[in-house]
Design a protein that fits this description.
With 135 residues, the chain is of the alpha+beta class. It folds into two domains: 5-60, no CATH class; 81-126, no CATH class. Helix content is 41%, strand content 13%. Strands 1-2 form a two-stranded antiparallel ribbon. Helix 3 packs across helix 4 (93-106) and helix 4 (93-106) packs across helix 5. The longest helix is centred in the C-terminal third of the chain and has 14 residues, at 93-106. The chain is elongated and about 70 Å long. The model is unreliable at 40-46 (pLDDT under 50).
């Protein structure tokens, strides 16, 4: 079984000075298909993955966000729908997203987002967890 994965990358390679943009655009698909073997010099080069879109979510990472935060010397903790579904598996993905949005909008800045604030937001929006639900 296979899946479609879209990788957005910045590739830094050394090209002859006279190389024109249209030449690069015309040849890049062939170069990528052939593995860039002849175009990558022995000198150091850089390949930076900026984003990955994987239909199964296995390879997806918020790489661009991390890069932007690093530039500003900032950090962020990321909560996702799957985190909500761990607490409330009976919710749909859209309901879990609503919980995250509610928790973010109404969280106590002195405490931040945590499992309790996520659980409280879920309860505010969808009532208490049904009896017998898996936790």
């Amino acid at each position: 079984m296979s899946r479609i994965v879209t990788i957005t990358a910045a590739i830094e390679i050394e090209l002859p000075y006279e190389t024109m943009l249209y030449q690069l655009q015309e040849n890049l698909p062939y170069l990528l298909h052939g593995g860039l073997r002849s175009e990558i010099p022995k000198a150091p080069y850089t390949v930076s993955v900026l984003a990955v879109d994987d239909e199964l979510g296995i390879l997806t990472k918020p790489l661009e966000l991390k890069r932007l935060l690093d530039q500003q010397r900032q950090v962020a903790v990321i909560w996702e729908v799957d985190d909500v579904l761990v607490l409330r598996p009976e919710l749909t993905d859209d309901e879990a997203w609503a919980v995250l949005q509610h928790a973010h909008q109404y969280h106590d800045a002195g405490i931040g987002l945590n499992w309790e604030s996520i659980e409280s937001a879920a309860e505010s929006l969808f009532g208490p967890e049904p009896q017998g639900a898996l936790s």
